[in-house]
Each structure stands twice: as C-alpha cells, then as structure tokens.
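Input protein
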Amino acid sequence: MATIGPSIMCADMGRLQESIIRLHDANVDFFHFDIMDGKFVPNFTMGPDMIKSLRSHSGKPFDIHLMIEEPEKYIDLFADAGADMISVHAESTMHLQRTLQAIRGKNIKVGVALNPATPLSYLDYIWDTIDYVTLMTVNPGFAGQKFIPLTLNKIQQLKQQIDEKNLNITIQVDGNISFETIPQVIANGADMLVCGTSCLFKKNQTLEDATAKLKNFITKIPEYSPVNA
C-alpha cells in the first residue's frame, strides 16, 4: 500500500510540535519537510534548527526535500538535524552524482527530485546512487497548485524503467495529491504520497480524522499492475 507523509509546510506553523505528535499518533508513515531558499523556488520555508527542534517528537522518518540552490553546501546541516532521507533537485546542482554521494555518506536514504518539465533521462547515470525519486506533479514553491496531468505519464514511465532494471527504488509524488489524483498516481506506480492541503490539512477536520479518512481511502485503491502484464 502506498505510504503517506504530511507536508509540514502546510501545517499550522504556530503549533508544529503539537501537529507532529498528533500525526505521529495517527500513524502517518513519514514526515515531509520542504526546504526553500527563495532562489530555486519563489518561497521561503523552514531550516535545520526547526527540524532539530521537532526531531525528538517522532521516530517516524524525516524526509527532507531541499528546494534550494547548491544543496551540496547544506547536506551536513540537515543530516545532523535529524534527517532520515534527503532529496535534492537534479536542476539545482552542477554535480548531481557527487551531491547524492555526499548524502549516501551520511548513511541516510538518497533521493533525487525532478520538476514537471525535467526529463527522466537525468536518472540514466545515477540509478545506482538513489533510493527514491520525487516526481513533482506541480511546479514547486507553493501549496494549492493545480495538478499537471502529463506527469501521470512520467510516473508510469519511471515505474516501467525501475521494473525493467529490477531496481529497488521508490517513487514519491509531490504536488496536489488529492482524493481525485491519488487513485491515478497509484495506478501509474507511485509508492509514497506527499500529502498537503489537498487531502490532509483540512480546516473542517481534525488531523486524526483526516489521516484516518485518507488511509482508509488508500486501502480501497487497487495496487499498481504493470502495463501489458
């Protein structure tokens, strides 16, 4: 079954500690932190001190998504703050393979993120360096954007490549992951769902009720089956 990770940028910033504890108790699978520098994407969010302050409140994996330029300069900071997983954008660094190896050197899971218009060919020479791929299904920077339908083909193509190469690589999807789009992304091969305002952080629902509703919804979705199987 696909796993769910709350996008913490969508949480109540004044009650982050409480939100982490409640979501942990509601049995989410991981926590997703979008780190933005105002350069690579037109927004600013969070930093290593915030990650460190929240780390003791859950043993669930902390998934750090670096939406920043020159992420190689900050791997140590976020690893030391408590990251279990770090993804960097292929578009954000001159030496992608070296940056990924630096993450591997911290003994945490290695991810690469691709913007909607970035081709899968970026992965051709880093397959042996990554544990997961974060496919953006919106252009990164802000919550509440419209899902880009063509990214469904990209998810399917990536899943086929992973299966053909017999690789142990997980597909994470990030951007307007809603009750409408979740069945589609799972059908095309997504394994990890980054969940924000489209399905989890709802004004008219508690975090506990929203998480339970979402997990129950996912249990009823047929699992991915390879094309032409």
The helical segments are 16-25, 48-55, 75-81, 96-104, 151-164, 182-187, 207-219. The two ends are 19 Å apart (CA to CA). The chain has seven helices and nine strands. The first strand starts at residue 3 and ends at 6.
